[in-house]
Design brief:
alpha/beta
């Protein structure tokens, strides 16, 4: 993925006879920290920063990208809210518990960042990553940070190229006329003949702490931009953006280093995932469960793409043999009973098929599933699962158990498979062109 970078202005990169890239700690080694601002008092969307987006809390997308870039000495979330702190720690970030003075509606990002730097004086380069930019990838972070650490810039920020003609605003009731701001109507260019304009997309602002503390600037000194492609430039401001952003993230988001190329085997709990978790007992003593046709369609979609689906029942909450046989007949799946620790029973099945756990998808819904949820290449829980299971899963469904969660996860698996195939195809094209 290529990007364009360019110096904007300034020659303040030299201080005390040293270029910016050599300033800082002895030996030239500088402490580089990522900081994600996530205040609890969002006026647009309540607790927006931990609202689920495509199965992941919003801040989880950027925390994962930052950690997987392996460019930072520390990754932090700055917040004033207990729930955001819990989610941040779950996803592997450290937490800066900001003061009340920088948590007001009128507080600026710069004030919060300066407080963080004062409390963490070891930091030399501060990378402010916006929580509302869920399509950020590690390669974006690496490319931009290289411009500071190796190329000698003092600040680098993200931009996107827009091809939009702008016109001057005319206030209502004014007798003025509008006029073009960036085009000549007489010589209106075609899109392909116009480079467009660079606009901040808000994904990140990387700056030396000297610039932040001594000049009160996030963009200054020797400045450069890092251009991101439009498909990665998602910024969520209002609730109406959410469904659009979710579709963009599913297609262009970063799902982690362990995303499997192809899922070949899926395990799904019957109770609480395929069903809503209730067993009905008839007067004659027979067991009955309710299975949603959307979920059985999800199973057939996976089977059509050569993904084997195995349904799991638990020895802790067993179903009758006749009911298991009916489920197997209706879904075309093997039904397996597992013990108190499902992983003990499933490991031999994975090994028998000569698969690795990165090739496996797992859908569970409670504490006994945690080990399998952590180990599987793709894992999910229904939207009504307990927190212990949600924290272990890589994807949290909008739908609840027995009401479309299986279908939703099946669509997610197939989308990831499609992305993997597209990437492999692109890799082949790239290798042939060199």
């Amino acid at each position: 993925m290529s990007s364009r970078k360019r110096v904007v202005h300034g020659d303040e990169g030299v201080r005390d006879g040293l270029p910016a890239c050599k300033q800082g700690r002895p030996g030239g080694k500088r402490h580089v920290a990522a900081l994600i601002l996530a205040r609890g008092g969002s006026k647009g969307i309540p607790l927006k920063n931990i609202k689920m987006l495509a199965g992941v809390p919003l801040i989880g997308w950027v925390v994962r990208a930052a950690l997987d870039s392996e460019m930072f000495d520390s990754v932090w979330v700055s917040t004033d809210h207990d729930d955001i702190e819990k989610v941040a720690r779950t996803w592997g970030a450290e937490v800066h518990r900001r003061s009340a003075q920088v948590s007001r509606d009128t507080s600026t990002s710069l004030e919060t960042i300066q407080e963080f730097v004062r409390l963490n004086p070891e930091v030399d380069v501060l990378c402010n990553i916006q929580a509302t930019s869920p399509c950020l990838h590690p390669f974006h972070v690496k490319g931009a940070l290289k411009m500071i650490l190796e190329d000698g810039f003092d600040s680098v920020f993200a931009v996107v190229r827009r091809h939009q003609f702008r016109w001057q605003e005319v206030k209502k009731g004014s007798d003025e006329f509008t006029k073009p701001l960036n085009l000549d109507p007489v010589n209106r260019p075609r899109r392909q003949d116009w480079d467009g304009e660079l606009c901040e997309n808000g994904s990140f602002y990387f700056t030396t702490t000297d610039l932040i503390m001594k000049k009160g600037l996030l963009q200054g000194g020797k400045v450069a931009y890092y251009e991101m492609l439009p498909e990665y430039s998602v910024d969520i401001d209002v609730d109406i953006d959410w469904p659009v952003a979710e579709q963009r993230v599913l297609r262009y988001g970063y799902f982690g280093r362990a995303t499997p190329e192809v899922v070949r085997l899926m395990f799904c709990n019957v109770s609480g995932c395929l069903t809503e978790g209730r067993i009905f007992l008839t007067a004659s003593g027979e067991d009955m469960v309710s299975v949603n046709t959307r979920d059985t369609m999800g199973i057939r979609m996976l089977q059509k793409e050569e993904v084997e689906v195995v349904l799991l029942t638990s020895s802790q909450d067993p179903v009758s043999r006749s009911l298991a046989d009916k489920l197997a007949e209706r879904t075309g799946c093997q039904v397996v009973q597992v013990g108190e620790e499902p992983l003990d029973d499933l490991k031999p099945m994975v090994e028998k098929r000569k698969l690795q756990w990165k090739d496996v998808a797992y859908m569970g819904n409670d504490k006994p599933d945690v080990n399998c949820l952590n180990l599987a290449g793709l894992s999910a829980v229904p939207g009504d699962a307990p927190v212990v299971a949600i924290n272990a899963a890589k994807y949290t469904c909008h739908s609840v158990g027995g009401k479309g969660a299986m279908r939703e996860f099946a669509e997610h698996i197939l989308l990831q498979k499609q992305k993997a195939k597209s990437q492999m195809k692109q890799d082949r094209i790239d290798s042939c062109s060199h």
